[in-house]
Amino acid sequence: MDPGIDPKVIAELWGVICERKEHPAGTSYTSRLFLDEKGIDKVLEKVGEETTEFILAVKNGVDGRTVSEASDLLFHILVALRAADIDLADVMKELEHRRK
Question: What pTM was computed for the model?
Fold first, then answer.
């Protein structure tokens, strides 16, 4: 594995997302996403928005922006998975299965 890649970061982020879902904090952006009156639609809107921004950053060749938007997109995908009650472990198992 590339020494610059630390899978603990995703695991820690997933833990925080799950914590915010179970124990919302009023000042937390993640908690506000879960508590929005639109429900999961709000999270999915953010996934769509971040997807578009990521595509445009890649298309325009703006490396720093691409990294930023990829981070936003990954975060919102994780939030959407939790909002849909999908465990990240299931996604990771599927990725592992596809790798073989």
Answer: 0.93
